[in-house]
Specification:
The protein is mostly helical. The protein has a domain of 244 residues: MetI-like fold (Orthogonal Bundle), CATH 1.10.3720. 66% of the residues lie in helices and 0% in strands. The chain is built from 15 helices and no strands. The longest helix has 30 residues. The relative contact order is 0.09.
């Protein structure tokens, strides 16, 4: 007699495998480093390279390193990295050719600007008063660096350098390039041929030459076109060149976001009676900018690093100050590797912070898509 299940009888269900844990360190390692055999093989190869190189680097950079600012110790047998060069030349690397006894001024100016940048990245400070804070801090930055008031000695802009100059150039160029890039991106999609052609020529012309050429033109060729006896400070000319260069690249990033907005939404806005600028401000731009946050931040990071090129016009920012500090002293000149590693760490800290902030912005703008 065959076996049959009567209605209402108990039928056991086969056990299912336990769910895979998706949070924590082990889950991250499994997902990112050991997801399949190709990923596992790549992970093992990279680990093998690190295990062969890292011990020697740590021995050179930490175990055998010289930390005291005496170049005689750095030349001893068996000596590793000479970090004493950073101790000895720290103030010149960070503040450049600014008068040594007045270097508290660029220190205070840099701290004010960094504090304002951090505050501007936090939602709790996004208030109307933030614009006033920018005006006050930038004004204070200029007064502290230039002097000439309140008993401060006058310091010409060609003596500004190091980290304060890097922060000033990158911050102002980013702040001015973004609205300019926004207008150029909109102009390239304009229905007016004259505006569209002008914006296209500008973007293609700027993107067709390296930044060094733009800085060279702004610093050496532009003054030749000015009337006799009229001149613009080299710092302003360099700042204008970096801004125009960054705006051209950023405009293309924003234009990609504008093209990704469905055309039906623009048509719907026109049906509702919204003007062109109302449509752009309320519908198109919020969506376009949210889609290109990584590209915009990548442009910001690139601009921050490109400020190192201003050395060719005798403005010694962070990289130029380090080269100036070591080239001017034959005793410490052989230890440029340590100097470059030091400023590379500074650049990495700033760029990594910007990339982390970009990820936070992406999570904020994507919250509406998760509802």
């Amino acid at each position: 007699m065959g076996t049959s299940h009567l209605p209402g009888s108990y039928i056991p269900i086969a056990p299912r495998p336990a769910p895979v844990k998706t949070e924590g360190l082990l889950a991250w390692l499994r997902l990112n480093l050991f997801a399949d055999w190709q990923t596992t093989l790549g992970t093992l190869l990279i680990l093998a390279v690190l295990l062969s190189v890292l011990p020697r680097f740590l021995d050179w950079g930490l175990v055998q390193a010289v930390w005291v600012p005496r170049f005689e110790d750095c030349r001893a047998d068996g000596a590793g990295a000479c970090w004493g060069v950073i101790v000895e030349k720290f103030r010149i690397i960070i503040f450049g050719r600014f008068p040594f006894e007045e270097q508290w001024r660029p220190l205070v100016a840099s701290l004010l600007l960094l504090g304002l940048l951090v505050a501007s990245c936090m939602r709790m400070f996004w208030r109307p008063g933030l614009a006033l804070a920018w005006v006050l801090v930038l004004g204070s930055f200029y007064l502290l660096m230039a002097g000439g008031v309140g008993g401060l000695s006058r310091v010409d802009t060609d003596r500004w350098g190091g980290l304060p100059l890097t922060l000033l150039l990158s911050t102002l160029s980013m702040a001015m390039a973004f609205p300019l890039a926004l207008l150029i991106a909109l102009g390239r999609r304009s229905d007016l041929p004259a505006i569209r052609s002008f914006c296209t020529i500008y973007v293609e012309l700027i993107r067709g030459v390296p930044l060094i050429s733009v800085l060279f033109m702004a610093s050496f060729m532009f003054p030749l076109l000015m009337p006799q006896g009229f001149s613009i400070d080299v710092l302003i000319r360099v700042l204008a060149g970096i801004t125009l260069f960054a705006a051209a690249y950023m405009a293309e990033v924003i234009r990609g976001g504008l093209q990704a907005v469905p055309k039906g939404q623009i048509e719907a806005a026109a049906t509702l009676g919204l003007s062109y600028w109302q449509t752009q401000r309320k519908i198109v731009l919020p969506q376009a900018l949210s889609m290109v946050v990584p590209g915009i931040m990548n442009n910001f990071i690139s601009t921050f690093k490109d400020t190192s090129l201003v050395t060719i016009v005798s403005l010694y920012e962070l990289t130029g100050s380090m080269t100036l500090a070591l080239n001017s002293d034959a005793d410490w000149r052989p230890y440029k590797i340590e100097g470059y590693l030091f400023i590379a760490l500074i650049y990495f800290g700033f760029c990594f912070s910007m990339s982390r902030y970009s990820l936070w912005i992406e999570r904020q703008v994507n919250k509406s898509k998760l509802r």
